């Protein structure tokens, strides 16, 4: 019987291992692509779960709860006791969802609203190439640089015509003018920014010093809330929320990694999106209400869903408005207009509330990428959202695309503004943002302001220039 020489066996073993490594890398790449692409193929609601709200002025006794449960409405969670909002389970798959809601309304006639427990998703865009560290570059313009090693990769803060990770050479000053604004102000240490997202790696060396600190009911120090697990550990198990946090408030001039629009601020991590970047309506409401109750000034919302017009979510955003909180929301990554019918536009960015600021994405040439949503009457301005380099969990950094990445540029800018002018109302903040944005004629039919964020103009209350 022929035998295979040892050397050949070793070679075949190495070849087999190399094939396995290649296959593993292919599957890893596919996983990253799936993670970062916005998909509505997932169910747009949690099966058999509904969100019910009752008149907050009526007593909701334990006997009433028991009566509901006797009719097949099992109360799974108290979403907001003060507002009388509950998450219930009602299993009757024999009838369509619309008929099921009517049936629930008959079983609970005192309910004000009954909605499916809708699902929302993080707004990841297409995955950009990996970043290489850019060498220090100066151009003599009146701006303030930092000693953060990757500062020159952050074209969204200072664009001096450097190349982004895709190799595209930028257009000088096609940025948020953050580095120019820093000559006037770098800190927003008294402003609390709630990042409603997948959580935040609160141990990241570029974020830890800027994390909000609160206390749980037992007096333990916390950095936010996890609405999925109903506890106070909002650790990020996805990457999206940590990336958003770095753009808003990575510690500035600390010689580590990157810098945020605000060098110093208070980042409140509020997790309702899971490891897949998906989250339920009931948890979104809990997240928003936690931020309201714990003193947030700004909410960053780099998530949403197309065509889901939840009145319960709108009511939560309205509660934030009544508390004087600015609600900054990503316009969406469908590459379509948010001016159309309710079934084809993205929420929560499209709620017609005075505290909502809807943000589209721009690239390093002041162009709008094909994935970004827009709207002449619905999207307020755009901000850098292509090849954005920022923090990710585990002391790492990475580049992402999306209106998710544009939104935190605006949130960080608002934090700097509110540090100077704490009494501005959300509507005044929004009007000032649009006034101060740099006007780009090609977007007059795509944005309410026709403009791209300019942090310097915002702080100085200047009219944006025409480009």
| Total of domains | 2
User: Which structural class do the helices and strands define?
Assistant: alpha/beta
Poorly predicted regions are 1-42
Largest sheet geometry: 7 strands, antiparallel
The Cα radius of gyration reads: 24 Å
Strand content: 15-25%
- Which word captures the global form? globular
- Helix share of residues? 25-40%
Q: What's the CATH first level of the largest domain?
A: Alpha Beta
Count of alpha/pi helices:
10
Question: What would your notes on this structure say?
Answer:
There is one protein chain. By secondary structure, the protein is of the alpha/beta class. It has 2 domains: 45-118, Alpha-Beta Plaits; 151-460, Peptidase S8/S53 domain (Rossmann fold, 3-Layer(aba) Sandwich). Helices cover 27% and strands 22% of the residues. It has 10 helices and 20 strands. The chain has helices at residues 6-36, 62-70, 97-107, 178-181, 240-249, 281-293, 311-322, 403-420, 426-436, 455-460, and strands at 45-54, 74-80, 85-89, 111-122, 187-197, 214-215, 221-222, 224-226, 264-271, 278-280, 298-301, 303-306, 326-330, 346-347, 356-362, 381-384, 388-392, 396-400, 438-439, 451-452. Strands 1, 2, 3, 4, 10, 12 and 14 form a 7-stranded antiparallel beta sheet that branches. A hairpin with a 4-residue loop joins strand 2 and strand 3 (85-89). Mean pLDDT is 89; it is low at 1-42.
